[in-house]
Design a protein that fits this description.
Elements (H helix, E strand, L loop, with lengths): L3 E6 L4 H13 L2 E9 L6 H10 L4 E6 L1 H14 L11 H20 L3 E3 L8 H12 L4 E3 L1 H5 L3 H10 L13 E5 L2 E5 L29 E8 L2 E5 L2 E2 L2 H14 L4 E7 L5 E7 L1 H17 L2 H19 L6 H13 L5 E8 L2 E8 L7 H4 L10 H10 L1 H9 L4
Parallel strand pairs: 1-2, 1-4, 2-3, 4-5
Antiparallel strand pairs: 6-7, 7-12, 8-9, 8-13, 9-10, 11-12, 13-14
Helix pairs in contact: 1-7, 4-5, 8-9, 10-11
Amino acid sequence: MTRKKLVLAYSGGLDTSVVLHQLANEGDWEVIAVLADVGQDEDLDAARERAVAAGASEAYIADLQSEFASEFVAPALAANALYERRYPLISALSRPCIARALVRIASERGAAAVAHGCTGKGNDQVRFEVSIRALDPELEVLAPIRTSRMNRDEAMEYAAEHGIPVKATKKSPYSIDMNLLGRTAECGVLEDPWNEPPEDAFEITSNPLEAAQEPEQVVVEFDQGLPSAIDGEICDIQSAIEHLDKVGGRFGFGRIDMVENRRVGIKSREIYEAPGALALILAHADLEDLTLERDLLHEKRVIESRWADLVYDGLWFSPLKSAYDAFIAGSQERVCGEVRLRFAPGTCQVIGRRSPLALYDLDLATYEASDTFRHEDAEGFVRLFGLGIETWARKSPIE
């Protein structure tokens, strides 16, 4: 009997390794494992070999780094995207990119279904499945971990019983996800929000208490909202993040320890490391303060929060998010110039900014003799601006 083809989003971690073995050896599927390269620092060739050993008929490394950077990370930077004002959407941004690749490969291989290794508690099940169905509503989507309700201890036991090599152990049970934007960690001791995160939960940032002490300055240049040079050296968005990851990581900048609100209605404690992404968002938003007109800037700040919510919730391929994209893209033409950052232990601060398109006019802003502001216009402006309040106060005086 010919087995139906299935494309699996395979990370090489605990859950997807168990899912792969189950589907290939206990089900009636021919499993094509897809390892998405979104800039994570991992040995994907070794993961591909593990996938084949676990029963995959084919293990395919999809090089998504370029499209992830240009089509997903770049819009997030333009949107200064921080979910709940802190999380730079590390995993949330990669999921629609990976989902698009899964759908593409499923079409090329003639697969009837796709599968993922997400649990029923997580956000990623939503992100994968909503994205997949938006791109191809006819594809069947399987979620074996969710269906079986297998917990993490049971998954580790299954892996040990079937000789599946995985990094997760009961001493180090973290669930890790990495990509160009940064690194996430959850599970184990981190599940108690009172516990201080142990140092082994971090990988790309130094302990701020032990970090380099002499501050370091970096100048980031932007062209139409995107980083174009670091300290005068031309770069793209990927190399900019990588460079700032190294600088920020040395100073212990970029660690995020937060309790966040998942889309499924529960709160979870998450640990993130994203020094490069956070430094770029800080610099980009500051340059917008210098170059964007007041009403445009204020409206964009409102949209940024909703944009981040939509992406976090798995609605990358939604009409509202597309409409926001158009607004944000239209706002970036004037976001050109340089921002000077200073890194110190645990921190990154903007200490200077300049732009040929700056709306800051020294002659208007100064209190020195070169002041060109028409002070005589202010009296009439203030009176007219407050006329409605004054009229209301005359009719209903405040006691």
